[in-house]
């Protein structure tokens, strides 16, 4: 049996998804869960891209012990050094360098000839190899590259010490047979290919990322790049849950392969990533969508009762799907809460549990049943609160069918309390306008979504907003049993992320 290495890039390519932005602490939280899930490599970020990215990769490096921690770099000295510095504290580190090899990129992006690119690949791999023994090299846009040139670049990178050669379908242009023949051609035409592991990195622009990744495995790739929930640039990347479960469920076709993923952690990981990024999982999403294991038609329901395998190709429990349980209530104590938070995958010290316990008691006064999702929202709120530039202290709304909606907000900014009042087309509009009077930022609200976090009339509402400010789109989230308070929190969350 051969292992398929799972290289998770949720924190790098996933975070490049438009609107997704994670704080370093949120990235660390996801990294812990990826480690629980059993991923082999965590690509934690692109350290040169921003001080935040650098900090996130450093934080993940310091705390993750089982998975290899990887940082991305272009074939530039400054990038490679930033990656090296951010990975210094990692127990096992990898530098992932990339350089485009397609004619389109050479002509329009670099304005460089093939010889220059080949030399750059050579020198950058050599430099990176001086800093780190584990180097992965990606010829970006490989699937649209001229094959002979691609072979030469790969050969050079391996010669200079790259241990893994990743083949990116950067723009999601390829299809399964083509990927299969490309990997076969690489194996047959790169003389030193046996010294490296071949990886595959697929984007989903044509909805083929999972199929292409599996095709690569059948052809000889032994590492798959993927993200939780398939988030990533544009249409996203190959989704971890899909490739892993396809390998597992279709053992007949992939009999030779296994992954080290603990599949029962899939659902929890998906949920965490969705909550922290604000990217809602579509109900029909394979494996982790709300409807993935629901059976609506009577014929199906009847058959399922007779024999599950009639309409279910996998057991929901194998991916950790269980209904949001009633876990705690008003009378639950701190130990019960701490235990439940631990089961949910949170690593929190005594002090943090104490703060969350206080919030938990406040919430239990407002709603009778506290579900897992409520707890996740509480932890999220606690995390967000620490970093707030603008903090909501109070909100009052007047609304109804025969009045002009009005909002009064009290916000703490730099230690001082500011109050503003505004009217608007609706109570949410009035709230945002009142906030704008204090922040003077005036972003444009692009979208607004409200969802109940759990069931019941007293469920907390989770509001997700997308704003645009100074040319950047930012997502914010907020939750409360009061949907207008949740709206104000979400709007402020986006502003806090922006500033
Ligand atoms: O899609 C891509 O080509 C990438 C590279 C950096 C590997 O993400
Ligand atoms: Zn990519």
Brief digest:
It contains 17 helices and 18 strands. By secondary structure, the chain is of the alpha/beta class.
Describe the structure.
- The strands form five sheets. The protein has an eight-stranded parallel β-barrel, surrounded by seven helices.
- Helix content is 42%, strand content 21%.
- The longest helix has 18 residues, at 114-131.
- The model has no long low-confidence stretch (mean pLDDT 93).
- The protein is built from 17 helices and 18 strands.
- The chain has three domains: 2-277, TIM Barrel (Alpha-Beta Barrel); 294-366, no CATH class; 387-498, Double Stranded RNA Binding Domain.
- A hairpin with a 7-residue loop joins strand 13 (390-398) and strand 14.
- It is globular, with a radius of gyration of 24 Å.
- It has helices at residues 10-14, 24-37, 51-63, 77-86, 103-110, 114-131, 147-159, 176-189, 209-219, 240-249, 266-277, 298-306, 334-343, 350-366, 372-386, 427-439, 483-498; strands at residues 2-3, 5-8, 41-45, 68-74, 93-100, 135-140, 164-169, 197-202, 223-226, 257-258, 326-328, 370-371, 390-398, 406-413, 416-423, 444-452, 461-469, 472-480.
- The protein is α/β, with parallel strands linked by helices.
- It binds 3-methyl-2-oxobutanoic acid (KIV) and zinc ion.
- 3-methyl-2-oxobutanoic acid binds next to strand 6.
- Zinc ion is lined by residues 13, 168, 170, 201, 203, 233.
**Overall form:** globular
- Give the domain tally: 3
Distance between the termini: 50 Å
- State Rg: 24 Å
CATH domain topology of the largest domain: TIM Barrel
Across the major sheet, the strand order is 2-3-4-5-6-7-8-9
Main pleated-sheet profile:
8 strands, parallel, barrel
Instruction: List cofactors, ions and other ligands.
Output: 3-methyl-2-oxobutanoic acid, zinc ion
């Amino acid at each position: 049996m051969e292992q398929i290495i799972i290289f998770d890039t949720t924190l790098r390519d996933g975070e490049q998804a438009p609107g997704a932005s994670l704080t370093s602490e949120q990235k660390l939280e996801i990294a812990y869960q990826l480690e629980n899930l059993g991923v082999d490599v965590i690509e934690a970020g692109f350290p040169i891209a921003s001080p935040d990215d650098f900090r996130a990769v450093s934080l993940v490096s310091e705390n993750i012990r089982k998975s290899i921690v990887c940082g991305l770099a272009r074939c530039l000295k400054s990038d490679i050094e930033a990656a090296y510095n951010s990975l210094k504290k990692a127990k096992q580190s990898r530098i992932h360098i990339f350089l485009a090899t397609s004619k389109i990129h050479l002509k329009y992006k670099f304005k460089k000839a093939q010889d220059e690119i080949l030399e750059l690949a050579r020198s950058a791999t050599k430099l990176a190899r001086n800093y780190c023994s584990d180097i992965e090299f990606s010829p970006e846009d490989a699937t649209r590259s001229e094959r002979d040139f691609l072979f030469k670049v790969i050969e050079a990178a391996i010669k200079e010490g790259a241990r893994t050669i990743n083949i990116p379908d950067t723009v999601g242009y390829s299809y399964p047979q083509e990927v299969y023949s490309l990997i076969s051609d690489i194996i047959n035409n790169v003389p030193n290919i046996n010294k490296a592991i071949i990886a595959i990195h697929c984007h989903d622009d044509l909805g083929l990322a999972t199929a292409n990744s599996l095709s690569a495995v059948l052809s000889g790739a032994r590492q798959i790049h993927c993200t939780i929930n398939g988030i990533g640039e544009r249409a996203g990347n190959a989704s971890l849950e899909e490739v892993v479960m396809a390998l597992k469920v279709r053992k007949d076709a992939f009999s030779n392969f296994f992954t080290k993923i603990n599949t029962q952690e899939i659902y929890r990981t998906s949920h965490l990533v969705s909550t922290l990024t604000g990217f809602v999982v579509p109900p029909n999403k394979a494996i982790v969508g709300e409807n993935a294991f629901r059976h609506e038609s009577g014929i199906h329901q009847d058959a399922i009762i007779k024999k599950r395998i009639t309409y279910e190709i996998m057991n929901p429990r194998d991916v950790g799907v269980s209904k949001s349980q009633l876990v705690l209530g008003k009378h639950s104590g701190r130990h019960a809460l701490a235990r439940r938070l631990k089961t949910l995958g949170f690593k929190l010290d005594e002090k943090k549990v104490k703060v969350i316990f206080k919030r938990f008691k406040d919430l239990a006064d407002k709603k009778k049943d506290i579900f897992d999702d409520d707890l996740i929202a509480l932890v999220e709120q606690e995390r967000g609160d620490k970093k707030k530039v603008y903090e909501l202290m109070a909100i009052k709304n007047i609304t109804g069918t025969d009045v002009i909606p009005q909002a009064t907000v009290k916000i703490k900014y730099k230690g001082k309390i500011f109050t503003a009042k505004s009217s608007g087309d609706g109570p949410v509009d009035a709230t945002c306008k009142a906030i704008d009077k204090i922040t003077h930022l005036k972003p444009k609200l692009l979208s607004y979504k409200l969802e109940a976090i759990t069931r019941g009339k007293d469920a907390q509402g989770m509001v997700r907003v997308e704003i645009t400010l100074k040319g950047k789109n930012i997502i914010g989230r907020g939750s409360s049993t009061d949907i207008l308070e949740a709206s104000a929190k979400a709007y402020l969350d986006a502003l806090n992320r922006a500033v």
